[in-house]
Write a structure and sequence with these properties.
By secondary structure, the chain is an alpha/beta fold. Helices cover 30% and strands 27% of the residues. Bound molecules: shikimate-3-phosphate (S3P).
Length: 443
């Protein structure tokens, strides 16, 4: 196992950096590329393990994916009906997006598919896709009474339905919209609050109409999708770690360039500004139907904030780093309506309370979130990612403002979404000396 060590407190973070491509958009570009007619060229894509799983599943289904790791990834589409039965089990690793989005596609293919993942993914809820896919006519089963992976899918004809999802989840919405491409009649998903809309935007880019009315999204059945070049913007969720680092480390002035600023993703920007952060958007532009800009952050004091309701899906992946900002802020922060965090790559509510608590933060669990009393001085110590990439990176940023050395156990998971995190951290905070070490199993 690997462990990440960091020494705080770090001197000011100064300069410019670019974060890797957006994970959600990369998944969708590979997957839609596989289903399109023609070759989809993808630039700026994320080479993290999660997206590699999506590419590997495409390959197992007979799609040629060429150039992984080079500047341009080429997906030679097979058309909507050109996938072939895989010879083995499809392994999504740690990636909920791969497993859920492919379930929607495979529910419509005339063959058998078995999908699984790592120990964490095999504990994550799948009833939320199995039930509506069955209502569409799919034959799909999961472990433990259709709750968890592995999933078995015998694909076949589907019919469009109107599904009111009890959770605001882009993975659920996307799985059903993708299944809807193959259904008889239109497919409608209604969400309790809007989740990220990259699938909708990219389907339009590939030439398929999507109707959006508030929280209701409808797709008609598709005859074909047309390959288009895709340029993936920087991942706001990866940028978030550096944005908060620059807010917290006194004297910092940092620009993160080329960041995706889709409003369904940027809830953290609004929350940080409410907390008093100085973040400026520069050079706003649009790339492949997604808003993009550069973010200039200047360090300054933060105050506690109350977060909940419809904002939650717009910062669902940023709660770990928001908790770090809250621990450093003056006053109390309350995070409500975040029960979904219990079923992410780890139980993030328990992980943040436990691990930030080890560093000296006052973080209390609520059933649906956290109460954080900020302003306590943090002290470096041993802690663990609990196998969760975003917990690992949030702890790394907390370590920059903690006094003394911090060791984050089980840090290799960072590669799922941000393979260059440690080298980038080293460029902007060399004095904190971030180092990946082999973990001493006997320590
Ligand atoms: C994602 C959706 C979110 C998010 C995940 C990526 C996506 O999950 O947490 O990191 O790409 O659709 P949910 O849909 O389960 O909220």
């Amino acid at each position: 196992m690997e462990c990440l060590s960091i020494r705080g407190p770090a001197p000011p973070l100064i300069g410019r950096l670019r974060v890797p491509g957006d994970k959600s958009i990369t998944h969708r570009a590979i997957l839609l590329g596989a289903l399109a007619d023609g070759t989809t060229e993808i630039r700026g894509y994320l080479t993290g393990d999660d997206c590699w799983r999506t590419a590997a599943i495409c390959r197992a289904l007979g799609v040629e994916v060429e150039g992984w790791g080079s500047p341009v990834l080429r997906v030679h589409g097979k058309g909507l009906r050109g996938l072939r039965e895989a010879e083995g089990i499809l392994d999504a690793g740690n990636s909920g997006t791969s497993l859920r989005l492919f379930s929607g596609v495979l529910a419509a293919q005339p063959f058998l598919s078995i999908l699984t993942g790592d120990a964490s993914l095999c504990r994550r809820p799948m009833g939320r896709i199995i039930q509506p896919l069955r209502q569409m006519g799919a034959s799909i089963w999961g472990r433990a009474g259709d709750q968890y992976p592995p999933l078995a899918i015998r694909g076949g004809p589907l019919r469009g339905i109107r599904h009111a999802s009890p959770v605001a989840s882009a993975q659920v919405k996307s799985a059903l919209l993708l299944a809807g491409l193959y259904a008889e009649g239109p497919m409608t998903v209604v969400e309790p609050a809007p989740s990220r809309d990259h699938t909708e935007r990219m389907l339009r880019g590939f030439g398929h109409p999507v109707e959006v009315a508030g929280r209701t999204v409808t797709v008609p059945p598709a005859r074909s999708l047309a390959a288009v070049p895709v340029e993936v913007p920087g991942d706001f969720s990866s940028a978030a770690f550096f944005l908060v680092a620059a807010c917290l480390v006194p004297g910092s002035r940092l620009t993160v360039t080329g960041v995706g600023l889709n409003p369904t993703r940027t809830g953290l920007l609004e929350v940080l500004r409410t907390m008093g952060a100085a973040i400026e958007v520069q050079g706003s532009r649009e790339v492949c139907g997604e808003p993009v800009g550069d973010l200039l952050v200047t360090a300054g004091p933060l105050r506690g904030v109350s977060v909940g309701g419809a904002l939650l899906p717009r910062l669902v992946d940023e709660i770990p780093i928001l908790a770090v900002a809250a621990a450093a802020a003056a006053g109390e922060t309350e995070i409500r309506d975040a029960g979904e965090l219990r079923v992410k790559e780890s139980d993030r509510i328990a992980a943040l309370a436990g691990e930030l608590g080890r560093l000296g933060a006052d973080v209390a669990e609520r059933p649906d979130g956290l109460t954080i009393r900020g302003g306590r001085a943090l002290a470096g110590t041993s802690c663990s990612s609990r196998g969760d990439h975003r917990v690992a990176m949030a702890l790394a940023i907390a370590a920059l403002v903690a006094r003394g050395g911090t060791r984050i156990a089980d840090s290799a998971c960072i590669r799922t979404s941000f393979p260059d995190f440690v080298p980038l951290l080293r460029t902007v905070a060399p004095a904190a000396d971030p180092q990946v070490e082999a973990e001493d199993q006997n320590a």
